Amino acid sequence: xxxxxxxxxxxxxxxxxxxxxxxxxxxxxxxxxxxxxxxxxxxxxxxxxxxxxxxxxxxxxxxxxxxxxxxxxxxxxxxxxxxxxxxxxxxxxxxxxxxxxxxxxxxxxxxxxxxxxxxxxx
Length: 122
What we know:
three-stranded antiparallel sheet, mainly alpha
């Protein structure tokens, strides 16, 4: 947060600290798992379930709808659907598309962790 507070942007090198290489193995043939070069881990469960041709729980269907508009999100950095990298959620205008997505994901997380799990109801 120190570097962000003075406006320092490490560019591509700074973003790479959030990347993790992954290898997926299956004992049966699976379709290719489509993913942008950067995507948030909370999209991973839905990708794996789709590849395994298994139904998605409602909350994962909801989360998946945001991937094309915000493929990557963490506390310090986010990527918009058009590929722009932005400062983390706290720097996003609440009235923007990104702000609305962050709010929806926050409400979903609250519901799943401490709420009445309304996101599970059909």
